[in-house]
Amino acid sequence: MKKLGTLTVAALCAAAPAMAELVIPDLSYRTGPYAAGGIPFSDGYQDYFTLLNERDGGIGGEPIRVIECETGYNTEKGVECYESTKGEGALVYQPLSTGITYQLIPKAEADGIPIHTMGYGRTSAVNGEVFNNVFNYPANYWDAASVAVNYLLEQNDGSLDGKTIALVYHNSAYGKEPIRTLNALGEKHGFELTEIAVDHPGQEQKSQWLQIRRERPDYVLMWGWGVMNQVAIQEAANVRYPMDQFIGNWWAGAEHDVTPAGDAADGYLSLNMNTINPDYPVFEEIRAQVIEPGMGAGDGSNVGKVLYTRGMYAAMLAAEAIAKAQEIHGVTDITPAQMRDGMAALEMTETRMKELGAPNIGPVFAVSCQNHGGSGEGLVQRWNASAGAFEPLTGFITPDASIIEPLVQEDSLAYAAENNITPACAE
Amino acid sequence: MLYREAGDFKTSYAKDNQTFPIKFDRTGYWVILIAAAVVVPFMVNDYWASSLLVPFLIYAIAALGLNILVGYCGQVSLGTGGFMAVGAYSSYKLMTAFPWMDMFSVTILSGVITAIVGAAFGLPSLRIKGFYLAVATLAAQFFLVWLFNKVSWFYNYSASGQISAPERSVFGILVTGPNTAAWAQYLFCLIFVVVLAWVARNLTRGTVGRKWMAIRDMDIAAEIIGVNPLRAKLSAFAVSSFFIGIAGGLFFTVYLGAVEVGEVFGIQKSFLVLFMVIIGGLGSIFGSFAGAAFLVLLPVVLKVVGVDMLGMPTDIVAHLNLVIVGGLIIFFLIVEPHGLAQLWRLTKEKLRLWPFPH
C-alpha cells in the first residue's frame, strides 16, 4: 500500500505541467501477434531519446519526454492513443502500422502534426505538396518492390523475361501496397506475378505454401509482419523452397523471424533500409548510459538487433529534424508546425551519421518540401544461421524512379482530388 | 422512499403500459436525455468524443441489434463483424457514388442494405439451431470479410484496399472527415442511438417482439399457437442486421474515417459485441447500453489508472485488460447469467422496499 502511495505521488508529480519539453509520443505495441516486431522497435526508439536526455540534456537544451501508448496494432486503440497524446504538444507521430497511418493521415493534416512513417504507410505521401504533414523517408514500399526486382535483375544478367515471381503478402493495406508497382515492373521486365494473400494474423499458411510447392515460382517475395514471418519461413523450409530465392521486405527480416526455423532458414534473404552493426559507437553509449543504469525501455537484450537498430534510426532522424527545426526557427521549444519545417529540410550526410556514432547506418538523402521520400535506397541481407546474424549481401540499391514516380503522382493527385487539396508546399 | 409506485396513479391503459412505470425512472430518463443532448455537446472535446462517447454510442447500437437477435429471438449469431462491414462498405459506396446524398440517408440506406444481406444469411436459421446456426453465421462473417478484401469494386480499386470517408455534412455541419467538430460527431451518433433504442424498445414489447420471444422460448409451441417461424426469424435477422448495419456505417464514417476490413471487422468484433450483450444482459435494452459502456470504458479507465496515474508499463496494463475482461465473462456466466441488466433489476427491487424490507 505504501508503495502504491509513493507511486501515486510520483505519478502526480510527473503529471504536473512541466516547463518547455519536446513531447514525442511512441505508439508502440508490446502485446498481440505483432509484438515480436513492435517491442525491439519501440525499445530502440525510446532508448535513443533517453540517451539524448542523459548525455546531452535533450536536444538544444530542451529535455525530451516520450509518452508511450499501447496500440496492439489495432486502429481503434491507435486513434485513442493519438487523441490522448496530441493535446500534450506532440511533435511527431511514428505509429509503426500502415493501418493506423491511414487513419491518422487526415487527422494529422487537420491538426497540423507531422507523421513519420519510415518505410511503411502510404507510399504516395512522397508527394509533399499533397501530403504536407506526412513523411516517409528514407524509403517506402514501392521503393522496396523496385529494389527487390533490381536485385533479381542483377542476379539474372539484367533480364527477368519469362520468370515467375510469387508475392506472399499480409492481406491488409500494408501487404497490398506493393502490388501495383510489381505489376508495373512485371510489364516492364516481362516477369509474371502471382499474388498469394495471407490473412491476419497469418498463423495458418499451409494452403499458400502448397500452392507455391505446386507452382514452383522462380522467386518468392514476402510482405509480412509479426507472427506471419516466422510461419512463412518455417513453411518455406517445410516445402523445401530454396531460401536464396525467397526475399522478404524490410519488415520481414529480423532475427526473431528466422530463428524459429533454425538451420533451415540459413540463406534467407531480406531487404533492409538501414545497415546493422551491433558495435556502432552509439550502441556502446546506449549500453553504458541507458541500459546499465536501468533506464532502458526493455531489458537491453535487443540492443543492436535489426528492428532495434531501425527504431533507434527512426529516433535519430526525428532528433535530427528537431535540431534542424530549432536551427531554422531560432527557438528551442518548437511547435509541430516548426517540426514539419525541420523534417522537410532534413539532410543526412555521411559525416553527420558518423558524428552521431552510427556511420553509414542509412542512405545519404535530403528531404525537400516537394519530396518527402528520401533516396528510396535499400540493401539485400542474408541470414547466416550458424553465426546468428544477418549479413549484408549488397550495398544500397537504387530503385527504378521511372516506374515509381508516375505511380506516386497518379495516386497522390487522386487523393488530392478526392479531398479538395490544392497541391502546394506548406506555409 | 423516493423509488416506489405508491401514489403514482395510472388512469389510462397507455399510462399503465408505459416503459417507465415509476416516476423516478421517468424523470431520470428525461434528465439523462436532456443532459446528453444539451449539456454534453458543450463540454465534449476531441478526446472524449473519439475515445469514449462516439465508440460507446456506436457499440450500443450494435449491441441493441445483436440483442434483438440473440437475446429476444434466441438465434445465436457470430456474424456481427461481417454485417458491420456490410454497413461500412455500403456507406462508402453510397458516399462516393452519390456525393450529394446527406448522411442520414446514407446511414439509413446502409442499414437497409445490411438488413437484406442479414435476412439472406438468416435463411439457414429456419432449418438449424444453436451451435449449428452459430457456425452458419460464422461462415457469413468470414465470407463477407473475404468478399470485401477480394473484390476491388467495393473499395473503388484503391491501391491499399482501404476505404476512407470523404467529408460530408448534415444541414451544413460537417459530420464526417477529419475536420469534424467533436460535438457534431457526438450529436449525430446520439440521434441515431435515441431513435433506434426507442424503436427497439417498442418493437420488443409489441406483437413482433412477443413472437420473437415465443420462438426463443420454444419454437414448436410458438408454431402451434400460430407464430410463423419464417416471418419471426427472418424479421429478427433483418431488424438486427439493420441496427448492426447502421452501427457499422457510423463506425466507419463518423468514428474511424478509414477502415481496413480484415482488421476492423474481423471475428474479434463479432465476439466483442457478443460479450457486450452477454455482460450487459440478454434480452434487455438497458443491458445493451450497460454492456457497451462497460467494454468501451474498461480499457480506457484501466489505461488512465494504470499507465497515466500509477506509471505501470503499457504492456502489463494491456494484458491486465485481457485478464479482467476474460475473468468477468466467466464471473457473469456463473454468477449472473442475465448480466448487468439483472443486477440493475435487483437493485430496483430492493430500492422499492427500502428502508423497510420484509
Number of domains of chain B: 1
Distance between the termini of chain A: 53 Å
Please give the CATH architecture of the largest domain in chain A.
Answer: 3-Layer(aba) Sandwich
**For the record, what CATH class of chain B applies?**
Mainly Alpha
Q: Strands across the major sheet of chain A, in which order?
A: 6-5-7-8-9-12-13
Helical element count of chain B?
15
CATH fold node name of the largest domain in chain A: Rossmann fold
Count of DSSP strands of chain A: 13
C-alpha geometry of chain B? globular
The computed structural class of chain A is: alpha/beta
List low-confidence stretches of chain A: 1-18
Q: Superfamily at the CATH H level of the largest domain in chain A?
A: Response regulator
**Using only CA atoms, what is the Rg of chain A?**
21 Å
The CATH top-level class label of the largest domain in chain A:
Alpha Beta
What portion of residues of chain A is helical? 40-55%
| Biggest β-sheet: strands ordered side by side in the sheet of chain B | 1-4
How would you summarize the topology of this molecule?
The complex is a heterodimer of chains A (427) and B (358).
Chain A lengths: L1 H14 L6 E7 L6 H22 L7 E7 L4 H12 L11 H14 L3 E2 L17 E2 L5 H15 L8 E7 L2 H4 L2 H11 L2 E7 L7 H10 L3 E5 L3 H12 L7 E3 L6 H4 L10 E4 L8 H11 L14 H24 L6 H9 L2 E2 L1 H6 L9 E2 L12 E6 L4 E4 L8 H18 L9
Parallel strand pairs in A: 1-2, 3-4, 5-6, 5-7, 7-8, 8-9
Antiparallel strand pairs in A: 9-12, 10-11, 12-13
Chain B lengths: L12 H4 L6 H21 L2 H27 L7 H18 L5 H20 L7 H21 L12 E2 L4 E2 L2 E2 L7 H23 L2 H11 L1 H6 L4 H28 L1 E2 L1 H4 L2 H14 L4 H25 L4 H22 L3 H15 L5
Antiparallel strand pairs in B: 1-4, 2-3
